[in-house]
Amino acid sequence: MTLIRLTGVTKTFPPSGKGGSPVVAVDDVSLDIAAGEVCGIIGYSGAGKSTVLRLVNALETPTSGTVEIDGRDVTNLRERELRELRGDIGMIFQQFNLFDSRTVAGNVAYPLEVARRPRAEIASRVDELLRFVGLSDKARNYPEQLSGGQKQRVGIARALATSPRILLADEATSALDPDTTQEVLGLLKRINDELGVTILVITHEMDVIRTLADRVIVMEHGRVIESGDVFDVLSAPQHAATRRFVASIIEDVPVGEQLRTLHDRHPGRIVTFTIREGDVTQADVFAALSSHGVRFELVHGGINDIGGRVFGHLTLALTGEADAVEQAIRAASTFAPLIEEDVRG
Q: Where residue 278 falls among pLDDT bands split at 50, 70, 90?
């Protein structure tokens, strides 16, 4: 079931100064996000991804097109209906946005107080959420006494206070170190798995997409340039911008100067095989090469886990009799796509 739908959405902002041109932040974007999925929107600064988030949360109104949440066009809702809608959408921010004057428990309680829930219900819900995010012992602490990761977990607990169906995460890990980032991503994964919350993640970090998302949408200059299952997009990116993102987490095929350096450092023939789950394993490639008496060394690349599925490029230096090497390559390439560029001619 589609929970979030944008159809032909454009958002244009007025010029920032005299004589300037209107700024098109989102340009004819259409996308569907299913209930219960984790969808990541990735793009460089100015791609329009944060504007999409604000359109989903009805903090911005589209210049044209429609934004629907659970079949309701949010552009036609009255203010009271918008407040109800936003109560069903939790927000997580890059800079945490906690109230410094409130304790951890007070920050988590705030949305429930605004919603005028009974005091006993608030206390019970706050206790439940702090246990869920692993901060029960920090209930009476203030934000200044917390680490960045703890602050973000408070932010997540607060976002879950009203039991939303949708969680919007705007660069939620950008201010965190790598270890803390993985902890926060693990918590978001639990929220999706255990609570069934639909999560829309905005990021410029492809590793966040690989770790958390089921599906990815790539934006550039306000437009969607590529989308699909995370494994499919990461293992076979079609657009140049997507390939740049993928290259940040997956070793690409060596070419040019990089390939020349490998030839200088390693004797033998340099070849690259692509490993993709469902086609072949590393063991298959290695067995085919060994069966022909060829020695091999991994000199570049490796295997990546993407949502429990494997993909990667293996660049090997092969040594042995020329005929044996040729036969070994032919045998391995019958089931593993071969990419080769021999700069030595």
A: low
Beta strands 72-73 and 64-69, pairing class: antiparallel
Amino acid at 138: K
Q: Which amino acid would we find at residue 135?
A: L
Long-range CB pairs of 264-269 (<8 Å, 24+ gap) are 265/299, 266/297, 266/299, 266/317, 267/317, 267/319, 268/295, 268/317, 268/318, 268/319, 268/320, 268/325, 269/317, 269/318, 269/319, 269/325, 269/329, 269/342
Question: How far is 76 from 65, CA to CA, in rounded Å?
Answer: 12
Q: Strand 89-92 to strand 166-170: parallel, antiparallel, or no bridges (unpaired)?
A: parallel
Residue 64 scores a pLDDT above 90: yes
Report d(CA 64, CA 249) in Å as an integer. Answer: 36
Q: Using CA atoms, how far apart are residues 345 and 339, in angstroms rounded to an integer?
A: 16
Element (H, E) at 156: helix 148-159
Same domain, 186 and 81: yes
Global pTM reads 0.86
Report pLDDT for 168: 96
231 vs 19, 68, 76, CA distance in Å? 45, 27, 37
Is 344 among the domain residues? no
Domain hosting 313: range is: 256-339
Which CATH number do you get for residue 81? Answer: 3.40.50.300
